[in-house]
Write a structure and sequence with these properties.
alpha/beta; Rossmann fold; five-stranded mixed sheet; four-stranded parallel sheet; 38% helix
């Protein structure tokens, strides 16, 4: 089986299923697990490194206004990789190559035997379903069942422990700093598992919120990158909020709908209920931090 993965979470799924040796291509953003440097890179971004979240947002919007794809697929490298299976997604054209572009690239290969596995993780249960479908597609259904059993058990443990919390803090998660974007998709589900129920709110409701916990984990930003925009973040958050504010690694966790979504839940639980989840706080100390003011 020759597998090409065109998004980071898919690469993590493939490797967690024990198929690392079968990877013949990856996206330019695939950086976990360690040791992927020898896997050919099949994609590139039209938006290069920029100094701020506001500049990145403006650049992405400009590309989209021009009706251009944010990412390119190197068809010749894809042809050389000769994949039997390509794992991609159709959830967000800002996060990875679009399904349309993947299909167009495969059509140019003039092959009829390439299977496209399309992931669409809107909710936590969708992630489990995507893992199972990917496992079936690459001939590792048994490994998928074992992986899912372990992940579900860890989620259940967090939910059980969170039931012992004396209070249910009001929580806001932030996906992007400038402009401020509120966490949606699967985030309300994770918050509920960690001990609270939360609706998905649009940006207009931001100023009216009164959270007790705020988790900032911009999509694609490792923790050190978010720390660089602390001043921008403080300016963006409503002055009246008196919440405990945490920054987390939004590149490795939360925004990657794969096996490490469970680590994301553990980090969230440690932020919401530090008195109950000291073990998770210690385990993930390098991946999140609290800020004052």
């Amino acid at each position: 089986m020759r597998i090409a993965s065109l998004l980071p979470s898919a690469t993590e799924i493939v490797c967690a299923l024990g198929a690392r040796a079968e990877l013949v291509g990856r996206s330019h953003e695939c950086d976990f697990p360690p040791g992927l440097e020898d896997v050919p890179v099949l994609t590139s971004a039209r938006v290069g490194p920029l100094p701020s979240s506001r500049a990145i947002d403006a650049s992405v919007r400009s590309v989209l206004r021009d009706a251009l794809a944010i990412y390119d697929i190197d068809v010749e490298r894809l042809r050389a990789a000769r994949p039997d299976v390509i794992v991609t997604q159709d959830l967000c054209d800002v996060c990875a190559v679009s399904l349309h572009d993947v299909r167009a690239a495969v059509a140019r290969l003039a092959r009829q035997d390439v299977a496209i596995v399309n992931l669409h993780p809107m909710r936590l249960e969708d992630i489990w379903g995507d893992i199972a479908r990917a496992a079936d597609a690459i001939g590792r259904a048994a490994a998928g069942a074992r992986l899912l059993a372990g992940l579900r058990a860890r989620v259940a443990d967090v939910a059980h422990r969170a039931e012992m919390a004396r209070a249910r803090p009001r929580v806001v998660t932030i996906e992007w700093i400038a402009p401020v974007m509120i966490g949606g998709m699967g985030m309300p589900g994770l918050i509920a598992l960690a001990g609270q129920h939360a609706p998905t709110l649009d940006q207009d409701a931001l100023a009216a919120l009164d959270p007790e916990v705020v988790l900032v984990k911009p999509c694609g930003f490792p923790l050190h990158r978010t720390v660089k925009e602390l001043d921008v973040l403080r300016e963006a958050l409503p002055r009246g909020w008196r919440a405990r504010v945490y920054l987390a690694d939004g590149n490795a966790f939360f925004n990657r709908p794969g096996p490490r979504i469970v680590e994301s839940l553990e980090i969230l639980a440690a932020c919401m209920h530090p008195e109950l989840f000291e073990d998770f706080a210690a385990m993930h100390a390098a991946s999140f931090r609290g800020i004052n003011g």
